[in-house]
Amino acid sequence: MLSLDLASELSSLGSAPDLLRLLAVPVFGWAAWLDIRTRRVPNQTWLPLLVLGVLTLAWEGWLVYTGSTMTYVNEARFLFRVLFSVGFIVPLAYGFWWLGGFGGADAKGLITLALLFPTYPTYFLPTMAFPQVVPTLGVFSMTVLSNTVVIGIAYPFVLMVRNALGGHVGKAMFVGRPITWDAATEEYGRLLENPDGFTRGGLDLDALRMYLRWRGVTLAEVRENPDHYRDPTTLPEDPNPAGDGSIPVTDGGKSVKEERSTPDADGLAERRDRAVIPEFETADDPWGAEAFLDDIPGTAYGTSAEELRGGLEVLTTEDTVWLTPGVPFLVPMFVGLVVSLVYGDVLYALIGTMGF
């Protein structure tokens, strides 16, 4: 009897597909937290949600076909919204990823939303229904995307206020924040400086960590003797695996990755003193930047030899550098999802207040 009462109470809150879709909220919250902490989200995060999306979409389609939905929607509207969500949002997410505007996890998160929330869910409380603002288009994934963009736009203004209050005023104050040179290996983002000054194409700090690990040195060691490390003939004969540039998760204050893969001090010193292998011997390759990029698999997040050299020059000469952390896109996406479920389409409401 209790289970039947519970089922009846839940059914009064919303349709079964819409209630199941709420399971995505804590998962997106967890993904957003990972995006802040490590800038990496496991691929396994999205697969259960994609399966849930297929299940709820088929279930909702059956309810529409049989006329059993709690809100009025005909088959044509339902089909249009599904086709729009999958046919527009999915290619858009893939296109932004292909152009480099999205990370892989960002694109997968948006694709998941397109499949999981093609139509507007509806949740009922005794005195009101949610979401409260529903646009005419009625494609919920589009609402989440627009809310994500609106929330993301606020980020530069938050940075500006933070920098202004700290007395850090300059061209980069809208897109970055200052850090000390020794914090560069403990941050995610991209430098906004090269030897010529401000730039939007500075060194990616993931690539910096890959380079330092590849050479088997720390940034402090490089900064202490930059002329030595600028000479490509000092490159190791047998470089370390570069890894992916992530900041290792610590266990008791010591990196688990370092315990497993970093050579001991004697072995590391021995490797640094070896003669460089022939293909790395080039006087036209300061810092061994080209040798590094040629030796590793992949592209070090699109880093060029010039960007790597410029970043190293800045980090070995400046005490404070400007960093753009970028916007961990899954964070505004999670907030946008919550706002969409509770309030609805913010941009649509703003346009409505202006009389359009």
UniProtKB/TrEMBL annotation:
<dbReference type="Pfam" id="PF01478">
    <property type="entry name" value="Peptidase_A24"/>
</dbReference>
<feature type="transmembrane region" description="Helical">
    <location>
        <begin position="111"/>
        <end position="131"/>
    </location>
</feature>
<feature type="region of interest" description="Disordered">
    <location>
        <begin position="225"/>
        <end position="270"/>
    </location>
</feature>
<dbReference type="GO" id="GO:0004190">
    <property type="term" value="F:aspartic-type endopeptidase activity"/>
</dbReference>
<dbReference type="GO" id="GO:0005886">
    <property type="term" value="C:plasma membrane"/>
</dbReference>
<dbReference type="Pfam" id="PF06847">
    <property type="entry name" value="Arc_PepC_II"/>
</dbReference>
<dbReference type="InterPro" id="IPR052218">
    <property type="entry name" value="Preflagellin_Peptidase"/>
</dbReference>
<dbReference type="InterPro" id="IPR009655">
    <property type="entry name" value="Preflagellin_peptidase_C"/>
</dbReference>
<keyword id="KW-0378">Hydrolase</keyword>
<protein>
    <submittedName>
        <fullName>Prepilin peptidase</fullName>
        <ecNumber>3.4.23.43</ecNumber>
    </submittedName>
</protein>
<keyword id="KW-1133">Transmembrane helix</keyword>
<feature type="transmembrane region" description="Helical">
    <location>
        <begin position="46"/>
        <end position="66"/>
    </location>
</feature>
<feature type="transmembrane region" description="Helical">
    <location>
        <begin position="12"/>
        <end position="34"/>
    </location>
</feature>
<feature type="transmembrane region" description="Helical">
    <location>
        <begin position="78"/>
        <end position="99"/>
    </location>
</feature>
<feature type="compositionally biased region" description="Basic and acidic residues">
    <location>
        <begin position="254"/>
        <end position="270"/>
    </location>
</feature>
<keyword id="KW-0472">Membrane</keyword>
<keyword id="KW-1003">Cell membrane</keyword>
<dbReference type="InterPro" id="IPR000045">
    <property type="entry name" value="Prepilin_IV_endopep_pep"/>
</dbReference>
<feature type="transmembrane region" description="Helical">
    <location>
        <begin position="329"/>
        <end position="351"/>
    </location>
</feature>
<feature type="domain" description="Prepilin type IV endopeptidase peptidase">
    <location>
        <begin position="25"/>
        <end position="155"/>
    </location>
</feature>
<keyword id="KW-0812">Transmembrane</keyword>
<feature type="transmembrane region" description="Helical">
    <location>
        <begin position="137"/>
        <end position="161"/>
    </location>
</feature>
<feature type="domain" description="Preflagellin peptidase C-terminal">
    <location>
        <begin position="317"/>
        <end position="346"/>
    </location>
</feature>
